[in-house]
């Protein structure tokens, strides 16, 4: 039995998920996009929820059905958050009690057996609780994920199972042990196989009589401590299979609860994030995934949810339809929000492919095999390397991780060298990426490069720039626009020196 | 014909001592140490061993030999264990098990040898002798008795009912498996990865009194089986044939070496059987790598840079120069190890190699540890240089690594030249690692190898050596190419 709430098919294993989420390029992406702030909001102080988010969110689902599957489960959770949180809680508590019962590394078979019985009793109670929760929610759930899980739960945790399981526990609580054995190395007993307790006193007596004739009974004096210790050794050997069967059984149920806690942990994290963003009036929508290659992102009112979580006033959303463009080039005034815009785009893609909601009024995008980022790093990685060297080293790692269907977001790449060299490098790298099928978003000051592309690019390029308000002020909203002739360097010069701006004729404030 | 064991200081400098220590790591292989350290003096002796290595290149035969050696080892361990046991049933069972391990090992090897393609003189002889042995009446009797007594014991089962302080041994009358039933009940929750909690079951090394008590009652249940077991030691007190045991021991020389090669071959490094010439000869080595370094790299051994070295018979001096930390010493070590390993009849760490059979390899390495006593050290180094030049022949290899560098450059140059002249007079081949590019001055008997440096900032080392006049200057190239970010490289890296 598996919860199956994250993946419709069974073969996705969590270790693999964690490995992919923890890969170098995935971690760089998480840093660049500020995913940590989202994770914190999802965790809301529960460290485990944070770990779940870190494992699930950055690994993109690769099919529309897979995304729809999660979106449906999430919709059920949003419709009934209390029930979702209760499912998580039952699993979390069962796991917690289990850990407390076991205590520190204990290997004595008699103790292991008695603790395993205790653990299984706790688990059976938790399973009954789950069954009750399922019975209450199944009617209102609409997702395939919950429906299948609840149906399975009802079938597997039925009254017959509970009676049989309780019967086993009662049998094993007895002090007498019954096994068969073979002769192993050195003719010492081995291959102990657990046997049922003889059912009646009658049969036991006849067996003992027959045994006395053929083999015999060995009685140890209770007060002979040495002999009792030796008997305990043999007892331990004989109990081991029972202890093994019960701990393995408990292990399966524990693994089930862990899996359930993990899977529900993702949705509880989503609920937490949903509440936090709603409280800040951020519009949230269920995004629409479309097939890879059927066009770039299209959105209304897209925002950077990370920025929203920081607080500090309303954020203005951006509208854009990338259409067939292979390269989106963001140019224009510094401090106009190009980096925030890239982050918003990246986060929306990541959240879409995690099966989550997106911080926008509407969002549609085609599936990408991965989201990769190349953003400036404040820490100057290694003094001896030189900044361009460091930048290129990171870019090389990115290229290693990229496939022809990746989405690559680059913010001010190659700014560590002069414009002519930078343009040459950009021309090479971005040209090769786009020619290979990669979709690239590039926020840059390389105006000559942008102007050249406008003339000579062999593929469609969409140029976007921060929208200016009626009075030429920054709005932190991006809109499509042809590249300007130069950056706003003169702007900044003007604002710094307090002289009128030559290009717009107005005086502007430098905003960071 | 066997020479004397490798010079100890040389073994340290070449890291040969580490390699041999690894080859002899298991306790019963320590006797192989001198075998690995001692060069063979004649080409036929080398060929005799290489033939065996060639036969063992067949995976089936090698696996059979490995299993055989392990099986004989296990049989010996079981005999040793039996000898110190007191309980008769326990002791006799171990004796029978030892006999079984031995018989099975021999039978398996005979079967494997029968279908193997064998061209070595050594294994051909073994095949014949072993066939003789297994056909003998003594051996066939041992097999029959052992099989029958153990089959009887294997069929014995019994039931144990344990209460607080009583323990009843009874016939096993149609058992079920209640543990399996319990597991089946909970199987519906099965998740990948859940396993039973390991329990520690304390067992005394010998039977305790309760176990003896149980066994006595089991004996009562199965008297015929134990009568057979009681008779066994009278028939077969010492089941292992000494000749067979000796063969298993000698196999270890080959198997240990092959085991050492395995991870390196898996990592992509190639070994080969060297072509050897007796007396001064040229050298042609492709894909030479430093075995000691490769072993230290573990999983990353495949990333080690291999080098090609080719010199003519009249070129007796190889001068290696290049940037610091560029792999000069590694190349010199690799050449030293190559010659030593070839001389013990083992596959060498190179894709292909033809070279002279070295009667000895000597090293004179700069010592970094005792900087304080420079004058004493120079004296000691010169003393060692003298001893080396006295000992060598035209078939020897001498490796000088930054020798005499504790003195001034002019002195070091003069001393090196003088020592090299001595070595040249003896006709020995010589590898000189040095920063003194003057030593690579062109003359007919000297060749120069130079370590490569990558273009661009920082000048990453390529660890690749080229035969050309010494330089030392790095060429400039763009960073982009270094990171493989030019258009063609990116497109190629992204190609599906």
Structural write-up:
The complex is a heterodimer of chains A (512) and B (496). With 512 residues, chain A is an alpha/beta fold. Chain A has helices at 14-21, 24-33, 35-43, 47-56, 64-79, 81-102, 109-137, 144-156, 159-172, 201-214, 225-279, 305-310, 338-353, 387-401, 419-435, 447-456, 489-497; strands spanning 177-183, 189-194, 216-219, 288-290, 298-302, 318-321, 327-330, 362-366, 371-374, 407-411, 439-443, 461-468, 474-480. Chain A has 2 domains: 63-198 and 231-267; 288-496, P-loop containing nucleotide triphosphate hydrolases (Rossmann fold), CATH 3.40.50.300. In chain A, 53% of the residues lie in helices and 13% in strands. In chain A, the strands form 3 sheets. Chain A has a 6-stranded mixed sheet, sandwiched between helices. Chain A has a 4-stranded mixed sheet with strand order 4-8-5-6. In chain A, helix 14 links the parallel strand 9 and strand 10 (407-411). The radius of gyration of chain A is 32 Å and the shape is elongated. Chain A starts with 13 loop residues before the first helix and ends in a 15-residue tail after the last helix. The relative contact order of chain A is 0.12. Chain B is α/β, with parallel strands linked by helices. Among the domains of chain B are: 43-155 and 238-252, no CATH class; 278-494, P-loop containing nucleotide triphosphate hydrolases (Rossmann fold, 3-Layer(aba) Sandwich). Chain B contains 18 helices and 12 strands. In chain B, the strands form 3 sheets. In chain B, strands 8-9-10-6-11-12 form a 6-stranded mixed sheet, with helices on both faces. In chain B, strands 3-7-4-5 form a 4-stranded mixed sheet, covered by helices on one side. In chain B, strand 1 and strand 2 (166-171) form a beta hairpin. The longest helix of chain B has 28 residues, at 88-115. Chain B is elongated, with a radius of gyration of 31 Å. At the A-B interface, helix 7, helix 9, strand 1, strand 2 and helix 10 of A face helix 6, strand 1, strand 2, helix 9 and helix 10 of B.
């Amino acid at each position: 039995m598996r919860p199956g709430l994250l993946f419709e098919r069974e073969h996705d294993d969590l270790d693999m998920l964690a490995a992919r989420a923890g890969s170098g390029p995935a971690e760089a992406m998480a840093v660049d996009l500020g995913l940590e702030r989202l994770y914190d909001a999802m965790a809301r102080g529960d460290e485990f929820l944070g770990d779940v988010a870190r494992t699930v969110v950055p690994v993109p689902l690769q099919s529309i059905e897979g995304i729809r599957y999660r979106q449906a489960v999430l919709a059920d959770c949003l419709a009934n958050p209390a029930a979702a949180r209760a499912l998580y809680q039952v699993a979390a508590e069962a796991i917690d009690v289990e850990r407390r019962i076991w205590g520190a590394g204990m290997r004595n078979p008699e103790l292991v057996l008695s603790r395993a019985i205790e653990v299984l009793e706790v688990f059976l109670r938790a399973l009954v609780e789950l069954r009750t929760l399922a019975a209450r929610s199944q009617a209102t759930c609409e997702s395939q994920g919950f429906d299948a899980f609840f149906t399975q739960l009802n079938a597997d945790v039925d009254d017959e199972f509970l009676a049989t399981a309780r019967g086993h526990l009662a049998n094993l609580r007895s002090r007498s042990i019954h096994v068969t054995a073979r002769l192993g190395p050195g003719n010492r007993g081995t291959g102990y196989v657990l046997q049922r307790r003889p059912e009646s006193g009658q049969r036991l007596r006849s067996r003992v009589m027959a045994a006395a004739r053929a083999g015999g009974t060995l009685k140890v004096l209770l007060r002979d401590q040495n002999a009792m210790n030796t008997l305990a050794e043999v007892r331990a050997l004989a109990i081991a299979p029972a202890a093994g069967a019960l701990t393995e059984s408990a292990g399966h149920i524990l693994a089930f609860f862990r899996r359930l806690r993990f899977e529900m942990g993702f949705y509880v994290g989503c609920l937490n994030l949903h509440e936090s963003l709603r409280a800040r009036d951020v519009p949230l929508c269920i995004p629409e995934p479309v097939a890879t290659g059927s066009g770039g992102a299209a959105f209304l009112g897209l925002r950077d949810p990370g920025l929203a979580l920081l607080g500090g006033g309303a954020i203005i959303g951006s509208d854009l339809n990338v259409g067939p463009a292979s390269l989106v080039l963001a140019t224009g005034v510094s401090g106009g929000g190009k980096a925030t815009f890239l982050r918003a785009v990246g986060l929306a893609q990541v959240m879409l492919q995690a099966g989550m909601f997106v911080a926008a009024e509407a969002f549609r995008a085609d599936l990408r095999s991965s989201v990769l980022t190349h953003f400036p790093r404040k820490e100057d990685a290694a003094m001896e390397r030189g900044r361009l060297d460091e930048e290129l080293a990171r870019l090389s790692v990115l290229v290693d991780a990229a496939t022809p269907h990746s989405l690559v977001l680059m913010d001010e790449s190659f700014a560590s060298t002069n414009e002519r060299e930078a343009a040459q490098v950009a021309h090479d790298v971005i040209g090769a990426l786009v020619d290979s099928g990669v979709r690239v978003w590039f926020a840059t000051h390389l105006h000559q490069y942008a102007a050249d592309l406008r003339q000579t690019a062999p593929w469609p390029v969409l140029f976007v720039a921060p929208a200016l308000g009626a009075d030429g002020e920054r709005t932190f909203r991006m809109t499509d626009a042809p590249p300007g002739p130069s950056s706003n360097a003169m702007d900044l010069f003007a604002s710094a020196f307090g002289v009128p701006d030559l290009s717009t004729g107005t005086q502007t404030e430098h905003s960071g | 014909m066997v020479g004397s064991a490798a010079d100890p200081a040389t073994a340290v400098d070449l890291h040969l001592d580490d390699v041999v220590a690894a080859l002899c790591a298991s306790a019963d292989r320590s006797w192989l140490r001198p075998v690995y350290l001692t060069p063979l003096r004649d080409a036929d002796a080398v060929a005799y061993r290489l033939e065996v290595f060639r036969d063992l290149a067949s995976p089936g035969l090698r696996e059979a030999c490995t299993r055989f050696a392990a099986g004989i080892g296990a049989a010996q361990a079981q005999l040793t264990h039996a000898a110190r046991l007191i309980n008769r049933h326990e002791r006799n069972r171990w004796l029978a098990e030892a006999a079984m391990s031995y018989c099975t090992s021999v039978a398996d090897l005979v079967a494997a040898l029968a279908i193997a393609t064998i061209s070595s003189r050594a294994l051909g002889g073994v095949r014949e002798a072993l066939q003789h042995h297994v056909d003998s009446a003594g051996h066939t009797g041992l097999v029959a008795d052992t099989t029958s007594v153990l089959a009887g014991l294997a069929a014995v089962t019994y039931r144990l009912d344990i209460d607080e302080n009583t323990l009843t041994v009874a016939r096993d009358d149609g058992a079920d498996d209640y543990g399996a039933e319990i597991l089946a009940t909970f199987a519906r929750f099965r998740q990948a990865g859940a396993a039973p909690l390991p329990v520690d079951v304390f067992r005394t090394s010998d039977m305790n009194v309760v176990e003896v008590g149980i066994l006595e009652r089991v004996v009562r249940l199965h008297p015929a089986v134990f009568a057979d077991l009681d008779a066994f030691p009278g028939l077969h007190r010492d089941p292992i044939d000494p000749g067979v045991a000796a063969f298993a021991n000698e196999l270890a020389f080959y198997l240990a070496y092959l085991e050492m090669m395995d991870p390196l071959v898996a990592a992509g490094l190639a070994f080969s059987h060297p072509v050897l010439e007796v007396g001064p000869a040229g050298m042609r080595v492709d894909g030479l790598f430093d075995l000691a370094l490769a072993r230290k790299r573990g999983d990353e051994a495949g990333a080690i840079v291999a080098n090609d070295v080719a010199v003519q018979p009249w070129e007796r001096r190889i001068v290696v120069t290049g940037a610091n930390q560029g792999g000069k010493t590694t190349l010199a070590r690799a050449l030293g190890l190559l010659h030593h390993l070839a001389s013990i009849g083992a596959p060498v760490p190179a894709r292909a190699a033809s070279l002279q059979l070295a009667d000895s390899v000597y090293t004179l390495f700069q010592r970094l540890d005792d900087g304080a006593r420079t004058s004493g050290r120079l004296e000691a180094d010169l003393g060692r240089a003298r001893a080396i030049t006295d000992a060598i022949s035209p078939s020897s290899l001498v490796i000088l690594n930054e020798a005499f560098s504790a003195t001034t450059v002019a002195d070091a140059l003069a001393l090196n030249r003088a020592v090299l002249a001595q070595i040249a007079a003896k006709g020995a081949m010589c590898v000189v690692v040095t920063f003194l590019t003057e030593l690579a001055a062109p003359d007919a008997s000297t060749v120069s190898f130079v370590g490569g440096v990558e273009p661009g900032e920082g000048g990453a080392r390529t660890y690749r050596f080229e035969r050309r006049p010494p330089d030392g200057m790095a060429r400039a190239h763009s960073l982009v190419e270094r990171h493989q970010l030019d258009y063609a490289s990116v497109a190629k890296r992204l190609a599906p």
